[in-house]
Amino acid sequence: MQKQVRTILQRVAWHFACICMAVFTLVPFLWAASSSFKPLSRVFADLVPFSFKTFIPMPPTLEAYVALFTETGYPRGLLNTAYVAVTVVVFGVLLNSMAGFAFAKLDFPGKRLLFTLTIVSFMIPFEAISIPLYSIINRFGWLNSFKAVIVPGIANGLTIFLFRQFFAGIPTELIEAATIDGASKLRIYSTIFLPLSKPAIVSASLLLFVGQWEAFLWPLLVANAPETRLIQVALSYINTQYATYWNQIFAGAVIAGIIPLIIILPLQRYYVKGISSTGIKG
Amino acid sequence: MKKKIAVSIVLAILLHLMAGLAFGTELNIIRTSGDDWIAPLYDKFTEETGIKLNINAIPHREMIQAIEVMMRSGSSDVDIIHVDSPLTASYAVRGFLLPLDPYFDIENSGWTEAGIAAGSWDGKLYSAPFETSTQVMFYNKTLFDQAGLEYPPMDVEQRWTWEQVAEAAKKIKAATGKWGLAWQQINRPYQLLPLPQSLGGGSGVGPDGLAVDGYLNNEAWVKAFQFYYDCFNTWEISPKGITVDEVWDNFTAGNIGMIVAGTWSIPSAEEARASTGLDYGLAPHPYFEGGVPVTPTGSWHWGINAKSKNIEAAVKFIEFMTLREDIIDWRFKTGGQLVPHEAMFEIIKNDPNYQQFPLDIYHVAVYELANTAVVRPVTPGFVEWEDITIKAFEDIRNGTDPKTALDNAVRRLEPLMRRYK
Amino acid sequence: MPAKVLSPQSGGWLSSRHRRGFTNTVAAYAFLLPALIGVFVFRLYPIALSLVKSLFQTSFVRGTTFVGLENYRVLLEDPVFWQSLKVTLLLNLAINPIQIVISLAVALLVNRQGHIVRIYRTIIMLPMGVSLAIACTLWRIMLDPNNGLVNSILNAIGMASQPFLTSPSQALWSIILIASWKGIAYWMMFFLSGLQEIPDELYEASTIDGATHAQQIWYVTLPLLRRVALFVTVAVTSANFLMFVPMFMLTLGGPNMSTNTLMYEAYVSGFVYFDEARGMAITSVILLILLIVVLFEFRLLKED
């Protein structure tokens, strides 16, 4: 009986914690979402005073979404970003996981130095390197091409570090056995390490994807022709010097929040092997 | 084998021809984003001259940094730069801009004197006047009625003082709970300089363009910003916290009684009238009792990268955009931005649309440009000066004593300005 | 010297029994090269070019001269630098533990199967893809000192309105709140994937041994999560030391310099005050502090 009470209490506590966290993440979204269904003139009118009207668009309108998709460079930006992000993720996962494998499981001279430099590479603010990096890209003749945003984004110290951390957890015995069987390192990497590291690959993809999704100044500087413009830059034009289309900003925010979710949700099975076998269920 | 050679020769010739066809002049232009209505002019220019324009539109917030990255990396890739007029000296001193004197007949150009002055540094013109601006007071008639207040007159001779404005604002706050008074660019010197200038406090920089002590923190400045402080902290008639981006939209939403804002906002106010019935009126920029009326001015100019390889085409572009009367006519009527060129004054004087509300306010604008407009300080250190004054204004708005905030600003600015000596 | 600082791995598998020297080195470099070329060309080389500038003095009048460590000496006498350093340390002492602990706790909370938990998990993940710039825009309006949603809630439960971003004592905490809204959702994802690496058998074994849920987390989960925790810790620390957007968009380092971090000061020096040398000197200081902190984190979460 006492045990039952404890289980119920635990369950209540768990729901309470989850709900608190969910409210914290959801409220700004609800407000953004409701504002995105309002005409521009209502967004601020409904803020003062705060009431249910702040959260409920009356009547709702698709004005902002229609404008976003017809009047701005948003649809093109979405496609461009998808192209850039997918390319960066595919090549980034491949190259960085190889480097992560070397750092985790191979011995070679200069390892500590190279590893330290890899760590340093993500400890410098982008602002600090923007001028020399712009010169480099300009010298390569890559300005206003996708190359300018894709190539520098592929090799990523943080992603190398991520892969190294995951690979280091894979038992070395597996490799030794395979080596005795005559497998090359490339085969060990591709047939043992990669298949065992699906969560790591999902995480690395997220890291690279969100990196591209969030980058603003760089695509603005080097890929700002209409043909190469990315979604974040296209969105920024809603906020101009003379006017701000707030409802469109919110519509953009809602879409920006949902798209990564659409990508990550089907991958949930890699995230929720879970500990259901141990008792308490949600 | 021979066939192969023949094919490759033909191919080579074809390629060469195609390259020749594609080889037209192109101009790379950096400008701030937002003026999308102007795009037809770019097309028209390309149509007339065959010069292709690559427009790189940068959001206002990132503009300073973007120009720094592109120019400091030594790029000759940029031909034309959209220059915020007070930044002219900063860019000129650091060698970004080409002096324009050899390429334009400045005296007979028709550009206004104020425009030419704003684009000049050290006796040379570095940025061609493209747009200018002035500010007027928009007020919400509904909120005025609810507070039982008379509307402010549109006559420049009877313009309200800040004291009158504050009194009305307090009544609006008390009667409606809405904000009484706001400034569109709520913490920027462009908008706030007329406060100390109305009291004779000067532009915040000494006559050498570098001194700040005694200029940014003199008695008139402290007094002017005491008023600003009181609006937010003592009387609580103006909104704290709110960013520059949000202020105007709060006025069109009916949350603010009076707002000092650019004439460029008239189209947006008219839109709000059409969609939500915003009932607003216009009045001239206020001044301090016992002081003089002063209004902000200045806006975007065009400059040419000193390293550009397409100077001739760039000059053509600037001529087209800033001197052609048909273009000026179209620009002014379409975008509503004031044009620092004589042709605009003719339009305002003669075009019947400009004789009735709301466009009749442009007569006030013309008056202000001629009589009360004062440019922001002409100094090579404008970017630094502006950044630090914004921070001081923001601190005052959040409750820091004006004298302390301005003294701190002077202390931070002095070493920065000294570098230009 | 820093080469010795971070030890990536204690003894590779080849070191003992399969010492085939040269070929192994070639193989290792073949694995490394594609990524490292990118890291060198697009990160390390520009970093080197930039940091060297901290040793020079550029005057608009006199041109560029080599001044050694003079820019650093000047920095040490600059009260703005010390204020920024203080803000940076305060911010990071608070925000890093908050983000790491909460994202770990939330990951543990939602790492299970079931329908309800899937809904919770999805909602909690939402902010992950929202850029910090948009998060700032949303939260600025929610944290409005007068008409904000958060103050409406506070008033509803009988508390006074708070100034949040407009107050020197609350601005930094408001930024922590905004950054953590996104940060927790994002870093939780990495803990979640780390949790998938722990074999079920270990839990089963401990359940048979009669361990409680809390004991399982403490004795089974956390030790095995160490490697991923190190990654998240280092990544969070770096991200927060380099955080820039909220200051750039919302506070401008104020009120009264209460949010003026080293990162923001470095940006302002380089791009607004045209003092690249000072900006780069500050950037080097950030890098130095980060390296020390990260070294400490490596020690703290050392493997084995």
Name the descriptors.
heterotrimer; B: 421 residues; alpha/beta; D-Maltodextrin-Binding Protein, domain 2; 2 domains; 5-stranded mixed beta sheet; 4-stranded mixed beta sheet; 18 helices; 11 strands; globular; C: 304 residues; mainly alpha; MetI-like fold; two-stranded antiparallel ribbon; 14 helices; 2 strands; 69% helix; flat; disordered N terminus
Describe the overall structure:
Chain A has 282 residues and is mainly α. Chain A folds into 2 domains: 1-72 and 238-282, no CATH class; 73-236, Orthogonal Bundle (MetI-like fold), CATH 1.10.3720. Helix content of chain A is 71%, strand content 0%. Chain A has 15 helices and no strands. With 421 residues, chain B is α/β, with parallel strands linked by helices. Chain B contains 18 helices and 11 strands. In chain B, the strands form 3 sheets. Chain B has a 5-stranded mixed beta sheet. Mean pLDDT of chain B is 91; it is low at 16-22. Chain C is mainly α and 304 residues long. Chain C has one domain: MetI-like fold. In chain C, 69% of the residues lie in helices and 3% in strands. Chain C has 14 helices and 2 strands; from the N terminus they run H-H-E-E-H-H-H-H-H-H-H-H-H-H-H-H. The chains are: A mainly alpha (282), B alpha/beta (421), C mainly alpha (304). Chains in contact: A-B, A-C, B-C. At the B-C interface, helix 3 and helix 17 of B face helix 12 and helix 13 of C.
Can you say what the CATH homologous superfamily of the largest domain in chain B is?
Answer: Periplasmic binding protein-like II
Which topology of the largest domain in chain B does CATH recognise? D-Maltodextrin-Binding Protein, domain 2
Instruction: Specify the CATH class of the largest domain in chain B.
Output: Alpha Beta
Query: Mind telling me the C-alpha Rg of chain B?
Result: 24 Å
Give me the secondary-structure category of chain C: mainly alpha
Portion of residues in beta strands of chain B equals: 5-15%
Give the averaged pLDDT of chain C, no decimals. 87
Largest interface here, residues on each chain? A-C, 114 and 118 residues
Topology, please?
The complex is a heterotrimer of chains A (282), B (421) and C (304).
Chain A: H1 2-36, H2 40-45, H3 52-55, H4 63-70, H5 74-105, H6 111-121, H7 126-139, H8 146-154, H9 157-167, H10 172-180, H11 185-196, H12 198-214, H13 217-222, H14 231-236, H15 246-264
Chain B: H1 2-22, E1 26-32, H2 39-49, E2 52-58, H3 60-72, E3 80-84, H4 88-93, H5 113-118, E4 120-121, E5 124-125, E6 128-129, E7 135-140, H6 141-146, H7 162-176, E8 179-183, H8 189-192, H9 194-198, H10 219-234, H11 244-252, E9 256-262, H12 266-276, E10 280-284, E11 300-304, H13 311-323, H14 325-335, H15 342-350, H16 361-371, H17 382-397, H18 402-418
Parallel strand pairs in B: 1-2, 1-3, 8-9
Antiparallel strand pairs in B: 3-11, 4-5, 6-11, 7-9, 7-10
Helix pairs in contact in B: 17-18
Chain C: H1 2-5, H2 21-52, E1 56-59, E2 63-66, H3 70-76, H4 79-110, H5 115-125, H6 132-142, H7 149-156, H8 171-195, H9 200-208, H10 213-224, H11 226-241, H12 245-251, H13 262-272, H14 276-300
Antiparallel strand pairs in C: 1-2
Helix pairs in contact in C: 4-8, 4-11, 6-8, 6-12, 8-11, 11-14, 13-14
